[in-house]
């Protein structure tokens, strides 16, 4: 089968790879009909996440059709049209039992490796570095879905693939980010990053009761999309002093909650925090500009929700501000199995919508071109969806 593979820093290519098979009685095989690009893929392509191997298949946000199930799978049938959670949960450990699926103890076969970097291992994620499992991703014609009873959900027939695909990851992440802000009446929430995740976080914040949401980015088409589709205020950080504008907009107090949905960007970090797995040393440090700005701009006693992905160590992280302003810092991969049914329900009720996010749709064979559009945000690109 064909798949879009990581070929080295800055390089992806479509390759022919072996057909995925049922390796475990709890696996399913899904024929992928739509698979979205995500900012997290850019971190892998840019080389900010250690451990990637040549030939690793990218992609973790997808919908498709179940074409084969292992003998122990109870909740699915061949022919089901489904959306699949980006994080893989076993359904039986303490973390899964307590609805913290992205922290599952049992699905990351490279737990020892990630313990060296992070102290403990998170759940596996499709199409990512061995640090988070190393499972083959969904930018492929077929994908093996382990623990298929716990991350696979049937889709309502009226929800098109290009809109449903965001229920895998971007919508759960945005929802969780907003929920982490513990939004109260009259709250103002600022969101750094107007990509798919930032847009969905902004909408979730409004649904959860924010009085005002302000979205920050440098791409005018993305800011326009946020204003037009969500009715939020926006700030272009290349034209204004973000902290000053936020102060002006909040009578000098600052936003009650700040969501960071940017992660590791070349011009955001200024350099790599690459962790060398062999030597245990970190090279140049990450400089998380958006995270720093969010912490500094947040009102005293407020909450900063960091859902942009970081991999290594961070320099110039304003620990002093965190402490002296009494801030709460929250973070994490989405517990997709917890939020996926919720976001599907919100989509059906018209509370959140994702149709405007897919600015580009293309066959998987155009994958390298799609990533070029997405990385440099060319031609108003907000999200690309591949149709293998
Ligand atoms: P994206 O690349 O489409 O969007 C990122 C946006 O951030 C861009 O529009 C960019 O211009 C903007 N940006 C860069 N520097 C900024 C700054 N200093 N201030 C404000 N905006 C800035 O990516 P996306 O798909 O929306 O994903 C965003 C982040 O969320 C990534 O780090 C991704 O890895 C992460 N993510 C996390 C999870 C999770 O599990 N927690 C899930 C999905 C995505
Ligand atoms: Zn588990």
UniProtKB/TrEMBL annotation:
The protein's matches in Pfam families, at most eight in alphabetical order, are given as: ADH_N (PF08240), ADH_zinc_N (PF00107)
Q: What residue stretches are annotated with the Alcohol dehydrogenase-like C-terminal domain?
A: 196-266
Q: Name one GO molecular function term.
A: zinc ion binding
Q: Mind telling me which PANTHER family this protein's record contains? A: DEHYDROGENASE, ZINC-CONTAINING, PUTATIVE (AFU_ORTHOLOGUE AFUA_2G02810)-RELATED (PTHR42813:SF2), ZINC-TYPE ALCOHOL DEHYDROGENASE-LIKE (PTHR42813)
Q: Which residues form the Alcohol dehydrogenase-like N-terminal domain?
A: 26-149
Keyword list (alphabetical) reads: Metal-binding, Oxidoreductase, Zinc
- Tell me which Gene3D superfamilies the record gives: Medium-chain alcohol dehydrogenases, catalytic domain, NAD(P)-binding Rossmann-like Domain
Has keyword Oxidoreductase? yes
Similarity comment: family membership: Belongs to the zinc-containing alcohol dehydrogenase family.
InterPro entries named in the record: ADH-like_C, ADH-like_N, ADH_Zn_CS, GroES-like_sf, NAD(P)-bd_dom_sf
Protein's gene: fdh_1
What is the recorded name of this protein?
Glutathione-dependent formaldehyde dehydrogenase
- For the keyword Acetylation, the answer is no
Which cofactor does the UniProt annotation name?
Zn(2+)
């Amino acid at each position: 089968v064909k798949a879009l593979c990581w070929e080295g820093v800055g390089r992806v290519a479509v390759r022919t790879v072996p057909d995925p098979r049922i390796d475990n009685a709890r696996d399913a095989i899904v024929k992928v009909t739509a698979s979205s690009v995500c900012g997290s893929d850019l971190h892998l392509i840019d080389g900010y996440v250690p451990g990637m191997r040549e030939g690793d298949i990218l992609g973790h946000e997808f919908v498709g059709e179940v074409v084969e199930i292992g003998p122990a799978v109870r909740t699915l049938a061949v022919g089901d049209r489904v959306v699949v959670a980006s994080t893989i949960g076993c359904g039986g450990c303490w973390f899964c039992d307590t609805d913290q699926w992205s922290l599952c103890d049992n699905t990351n076969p490279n737990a020892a490796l990630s313990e060296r970097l992070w102290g403990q291992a998170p759940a596996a994620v499709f199409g990512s570095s061995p640090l988070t499992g190393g499972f083959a991703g969904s930018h492929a014609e077929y994908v093996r879905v382990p623990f298929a009873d716990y991350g696979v959900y049937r889709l309502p027939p009226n929800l098109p693939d290009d809109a449903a695909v965001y229920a895998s990851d971007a919508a759960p992440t945005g929802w969780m980010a907003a929920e982490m802000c513990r939004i109260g009446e009259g709250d103002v929430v600022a969101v750094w990053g107007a990509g798919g995740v930032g847009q969905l976080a902004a909408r979730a914040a409004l649904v959860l009761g924010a009085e005002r949401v302000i979205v920050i980015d440098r791409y005018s088409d993305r800011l326009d999309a946020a204003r037009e589709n969500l009715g939020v205020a926006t700030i272009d950080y290349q034209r204004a002093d973000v902290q000053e504008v936020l102060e002006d907009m909040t009578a000098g107090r600052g936003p009650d909650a700040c969501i960071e949905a940017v992660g590791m960007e070349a011009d955001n970090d200024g350099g790599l925090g690459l962790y060398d797995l062999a030597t245990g040393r970190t090279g140049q440090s990450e400089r998380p500009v958006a995270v720093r700005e969010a912490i500094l701009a947040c009102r005293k006693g407020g909450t900063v929700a960091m859902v942009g992905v970081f991999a290594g160590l961070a320099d110039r992280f304003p620990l002093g501000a965190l402490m002296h302003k009494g801030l709460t810092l929250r973070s994490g991969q989405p517990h997709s199995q917890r939020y996926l049914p919720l976001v599907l329900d919100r989509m059906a009720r018209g509370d959140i919508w994702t149709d405007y996010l897919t600015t580009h749709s293309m066959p998987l064979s155009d994958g390298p071109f799609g990533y070029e559009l997405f990385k440099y945000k060319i031609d108003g690109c907000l999200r690309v969806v591949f149709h293998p």
